[in-house]
């Protein structure tokens, strides 16, 4: 589509901060942009998703960048970008250029408004089509091709004020001194740093170095966290170095993304690229250290880029050098080659929960003893520490921090560093229990083997049956001819092959005629959960033909009958390839009524509108981004602008009551789905309490008196046993693609496990404790095979975790549901079939699960990524095709996106059209009279096998990386998703992947956005209403909330069931209050590149 665009080559060293906006996890586009920026020669400080204006502005000033690039897809963008402009100007950094994008979410009129306010450029989908990716990057580079220190002034005394802008400017000058173009410039800068040196204090330097991937950044962040806690009157500077790409000159300065503690007022952080130094430090690092000392920092931390065995540059600049490694260093003899074992004051074996770490501790300690010739000391006393820096409040990190403080006091006669108690406990004994036990780490490989073994069995049984069929035919001919010798021989041969048939195969062959006959009758009776249900098997068309509800194959060959029964079978029969139920429920379409906008009252009205006239109330709830990230509404502009945008604002249990008012939450035809993950345990506790309160009020009204304690208890338990619905709560996929993780991964998984344990204890059988989601993995850019493989792998990981906690498989599996996207790729036509077959086989043959547990149930949402702001009316065509594939594949529920969702929260008119898509398919499309249309298609069967094998291969790739959690640690899933997203975007922009109305079949008269399109935004009144409601709730519970939060934290620390306690906490505390209390005891999520 676009001609190849040559990249702009900047004159100056251009630096960018890139991020996604606050409460926004959509980082696929900003990831693509930062990669192209790097490839174009820029140094990029990537902050990742969910970044506030304060964090972005602080990083931009401290890093002395020329540009900021932010993606914003969750609404509130006008307030967000204006606030950023204001903050930069207030802090004397108005020169920094701001760039943004948000697809069709940012309207052209809003983009123009932001341009007038001071934002350099908001890129639109039309810009992407016209300029291409490289063209947009060129615009950004050209606008930022200037010096940030031109006319900066040579007044080092300004550093004493502790101003970040001044500190950053002089550090940039340190880099310019290294690359000075002429002697005069070099001389001038030398004098500047000579003066700075006179102002420098005696702050010590802590050096942190180690191999790439050892976890230096996480360890540094944990150190800073403890520094702030134990040194309340001291300031710290972190100078971090990452390598420059020699070919392009660009660099990914990725340490800051891992840092949660560096945004405190007493912390300064600056990222350096190695540029021409050819080692793990920037050539400017010594001047940068002097600058930090002159700026009055009490401690300077220098973190190097990853090093090799022979590197030891940190020892030349650090007073206390620390070497960080892992247990994966090879043979013990390799330790003798590591220079830093000789030079490091302290040696750290990070990621100590990995296999082999205890052996590594012994070998490293002995090598340190040999290296230092300290044979008079016990080797066990060598300064080697085992840590798990990625874990919250890790005991090994506590010991390391105390050791560093002791070293700083030893090196400084004045002392002044805190003396902390010595913890002598072996970190191997105090390490947190693995989420997946070591003995179960090969579960994905075992699962792949289980499926392949089943397929081999199916093939063997089919071959044996086919031979029996052929022999039986020959036997009939021999009998007709009266050939007794041949008859005897053939009977022996038949019996030999028949002996290979197992009991299942024998039943299939024996029962085949009866099965066919049963489906040719007028009616079919099935028993589901003890209920006998009679179904009509034929319907008559207007032409007078009878269409079967289930069509069976007309196979005569016994081998084909066996093959079909093992691979396909009829709906409702193992392995459930065609569906988990014998027939669809005619009284209830699979459609869900999806809503979420503004206040709970407004969304409640939308729910009543959508479900009017429907017997089944299948309510699917979208929450605003403030709620999704566990925060309360507030007046701060970057929060205020997002209240009630793209979802409903819910921050208290009172909001939850308003949201579902007028719906009987325990009615058998009512089902409530909540799309929320990070704070899901809190929101779920609010919902279940709301359902319980409804039933308590109804029971009291019926009796005409207050309930006794025993009666109230029984009503509560009955409610929990009855309520239907789903909460998404899938934290694994959040780390891999969706990005609404709030808490550290072990803590988040513990809360998921506590929910499931609570469900088991209270017999919650009709509500799904998790919706294991591939939809958001697909939305982040994954192709259909990756979506399916990662989602199923996540599901099996939850199973293994719950089993490790002692939960029975048949108590766990019924509470698990799945959620997939349906795009237009061919593979989407079979993802349900493949998922059901793999799950059923593994549940039965590996885990010994019962029939109910074998049945995988899943929800489909049509692809949001396939909705485009250009030619928005075409979106309904795409959605119709996607919905058709989902219904043909017998999904259990379906949400069809509205055509205008590429731009805004759907209008009522757009939602009505989206619902009509399903209604027309189900009620007007004659083919849908049959419920197993896909069965019998050669292509569908081949695709099913191909996709299934591709999924198993992905399981094996995950296995060799340590399973799902091990792969997450190395960012395998995230990297694969980003690569696939990049492939899609490149093909879309080049036109190689045709998208009608976007890159081909263009309408020259089409405006970028239809002028008449209704755009939904939360009103100022609604935002004010939510804040006011929150403040009233908090005021009413100001006495009860502290005690409720204290009990919650006690449960977290003491190992109690957190969800059981949350059921009480939500009655007195708001969402934000609870989230921040849990941060204190569970740790905050640490982002990754």
Automatic annotation (TrEMBL):
GTP binds at residues 213-218, 258, 350-353, 969, 1088. The keyword Mitochondrion does not apply. SUPFAM superfamilies: Cobalamin (vitamin B12)-binding domain (SSF52242), Cobalamin (vitamin B12)-dependent enzymes (SSF51703), P-loop containing nucleoside triphosphate hydrolases (SSF52540). Its EC number is 5.4.99.13, 3.6.5.-. Residues 13-151 form the B12-binding domain. Is composed of four functional domains: the N-terminal 5'-deoxyadenosylcobalamin binding region that is homologous to the small subunit of ICM (IcmB), a middle P-loop GTPase domain (MeaI) that likely acts as a chaperone for ICM, a structured linker region involved in dimer formation, and a C-terminal part that is homologous to the large substrate-binding subunit of ICM (IcmA). This is Fused isobutyryl-CoA mutase. Substrate binds at residues 583, 618, 724, 768, 817, 852, 857. Adenosylcob(III)alamin binds at residue 26. One of its GO terms (molecular function) is GTP binding. Mg(2+) 1 binds at residues 217, 255, 303. The keyword Chaperone applies.
């Amino acid at each position: 589509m676009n001609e190849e665009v040559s990249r702009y080559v900047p004159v100056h060293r251009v630096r960018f901060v890139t991020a996604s906006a606050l409460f926004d996890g959509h980082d696929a586009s900003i990831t693509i942009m930062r990669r192209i920026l790097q490839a174009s020669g820029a140094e990029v400080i990537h902050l990742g998703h969910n970044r506030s204006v304060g964090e972005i502005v602080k990083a931009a000033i401290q890093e002395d960048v020329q540009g900021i690039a932010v993606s914003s897809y969750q609404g509130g963008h006008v307030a967000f970008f204006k606030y950023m402009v204001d903050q930069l100007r207030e802090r004397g950094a108005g020169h920094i250029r701001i760039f943004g994008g948000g697809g069709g979410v940012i309207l052209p009129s809003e983009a123009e408004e932001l341009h007038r306010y001071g934002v350099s450029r908001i890129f639109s989908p039309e810009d992407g089509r016209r300029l291409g990716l490289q063209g947009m990057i060129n615009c950004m580079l050209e606008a930022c091709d200037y010096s940030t220190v031109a006319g900066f002034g040579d007044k080092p005394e300004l550093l004493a004020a502790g101003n970040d802008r001044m500190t950053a400017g002089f550090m940039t000058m340190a880099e310019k001194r290294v690359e000075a173009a002429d002697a005069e410039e070099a001389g001038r800068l030398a004098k500047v740093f000579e003066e700075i040196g006179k102002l420098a204090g005696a702050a010590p330097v802590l050096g942190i170095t180690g191999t790439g991937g050892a976890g230096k950044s996480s360890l540094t962040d944990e150190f800073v966290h403890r520094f702030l806690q134990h040194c309340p009157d001291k300031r710290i500077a972190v100078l971090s170095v990452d390598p420059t790409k020699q070919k392009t000159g660009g660099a990914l300065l990725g340490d800051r993304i891992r840092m949660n503690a560096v945004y405190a007022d007493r912390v300064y952080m600056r990222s350096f690229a190695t540029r021409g130094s050819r080692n793990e430090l920037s050539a400017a690092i010594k001047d940068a250290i002097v600058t930090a000392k002159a700026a009055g920092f009490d401690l300077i931390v220098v973190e190097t880029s990853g090093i090799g065995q022979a590197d030891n540059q940190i020892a030349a600049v650090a007073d206390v050098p620390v070497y960080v490694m892992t247990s994966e260093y090879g043979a013990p003899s390799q330790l003798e080659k590591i220079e830093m074992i000789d030079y490091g004051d302290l040696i750290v074996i990070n990621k100590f929960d990995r296999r082999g770490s205890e052996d590594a501790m012994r070998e490293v300690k002995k090598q340190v003893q040999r290296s230092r010739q300290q044979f008079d000391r016990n080797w066990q006393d060598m300064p080697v520490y085992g840590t798990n820096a990625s874990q919250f409040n890790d005991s090994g990190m506590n010991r390391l921090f105390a050791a560093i403080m002791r070293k700083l006091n030893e090196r400084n006669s004045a002392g002044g560093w805190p003396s902390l108690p010595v913890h002598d406990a072996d970190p191997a004994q105090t390490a947190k229990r693995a989420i997946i036990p070591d003995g179960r780490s090969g579960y994905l490989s075992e699962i792949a083997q289980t499926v392949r073994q089943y397929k081999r069995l199916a093939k063997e049984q089919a071959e044996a049956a086919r031979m029996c069929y052929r022999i039986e035919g020959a036997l009939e001919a021999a009998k007709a001819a009266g050939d007794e010798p041949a008859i005897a021989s053939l009977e022996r041969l038949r019996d030999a092959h028949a002996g290979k048939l197992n009991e299942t195969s024998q039943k299939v062959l024996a029962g085949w005629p009866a099965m066919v006959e049963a489906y040719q009758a007028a009616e079919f009776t099935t028993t589901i959960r003890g209920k006998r249900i009679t179904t009509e098997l034929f319907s008559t068309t207007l032409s007078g033909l009878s269409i079967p509800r289930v069509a069976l194959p007309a196979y005569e060959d016994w081998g084909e009958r066996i093959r079909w029964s093992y691979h396909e079978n009829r709906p409702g029969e193992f392995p459930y390839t065609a569906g988990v139920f014998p027939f669809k429920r005619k009284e209830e379409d699979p459609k869900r009524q999806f809503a979420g906008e503004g206040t709970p009252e407004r969304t409640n009205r939308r729910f009543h509108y959508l479900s009017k006239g429907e017997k089944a109330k299948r309510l699917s709830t979208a929450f605003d981004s403030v709620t999704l990230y566990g925060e309360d509404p507030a007046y701060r502009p970057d929060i205020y602008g997002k209240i009630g945008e793209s979802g409903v604002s819910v921050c208290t249990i009172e909001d939850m009551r308003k949201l579902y008012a007028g719906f009987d939450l325990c009615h058998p035809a009512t089902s409530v789905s909540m799309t929320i993950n990070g704070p899901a345990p809190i929101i779920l506790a609010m919902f279940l309490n709301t359902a319980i309160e409804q039933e308590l009020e109804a029971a009291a009204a019926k009796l005409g008196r207050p309930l006794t304690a025993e009666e109230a208890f029984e009503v509560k338990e009955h409610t929990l046993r009855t309520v239907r619905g789903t909460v998404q709560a899938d934290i694994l996929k959040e780390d891999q693609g969706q990005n609404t993780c709030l808490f550290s991964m072990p803590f988040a998984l513990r809360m998921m496990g506590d929910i499931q344990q609570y469900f088991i204890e209270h017999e919650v059988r009709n509500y799904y404790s998790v919706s294991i989601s591939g939809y958001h993995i697909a939305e982040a850019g994954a192709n259909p095979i990756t979506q399916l493989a990662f989602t199923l792998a996540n599901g099996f990981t939850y199973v293994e975790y719950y089993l490790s906690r002692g939960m029975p498989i048949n108590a766990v599996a019924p509470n698990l549901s799945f959620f997939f996207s349906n795009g237009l790729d061919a593979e989407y036509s079979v993802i349900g079939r493949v998922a059901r077959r793999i799950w059923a086989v593994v549940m039965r043959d590996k885990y010994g699960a019962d029939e109910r547990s074998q049945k995988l149930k899943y929800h489909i949402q049509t692809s949001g990524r396939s909705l485009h702001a250009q030619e928005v009316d075409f979106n309904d065509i795409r959605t119709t095709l996607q919905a058709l594939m989902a219904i043909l594949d017998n999904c259990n529920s379906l949400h069809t996106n509205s055509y205008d969702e590429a731009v805004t929260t759907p209008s009522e008119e757009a939602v009505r059209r989206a619902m009509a898509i399903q209604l027309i398919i189900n009620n007007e499309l004659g083919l849908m009279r049959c419920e197993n249309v896909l069965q019998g298609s050669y292509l569908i069967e081949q695709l099913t096998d191909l996709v299934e094998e591709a999924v198993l291969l992905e399981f094996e790739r995950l296995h060799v990386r340590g399973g799902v959690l091990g792969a997450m640690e190395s960012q395998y899933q995230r990297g694969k998703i980003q690569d696939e997203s990049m492939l899609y975007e490149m093909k879309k922009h080049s036109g190689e992947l045709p998208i009608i109305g976007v890159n081909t079949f263009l309408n020259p008269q089409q405006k970028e956005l239809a002028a008449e399109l209704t755009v939904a935004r939360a009103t100022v009144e609604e935002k004010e209403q939510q804040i006011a409601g929150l403040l009233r709730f908090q005021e009413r519970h100001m006495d009860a909330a502290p005690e409720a939060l204290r009990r919650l934290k006690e449960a977290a620390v003491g190992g109690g069931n957190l969800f059981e306690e949350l059921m009480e906490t939500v009655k007195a505390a708001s969402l934000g209050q609870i989230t921040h209390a849990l941060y204190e005891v569970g740790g905050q999520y640490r982002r990754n590149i």
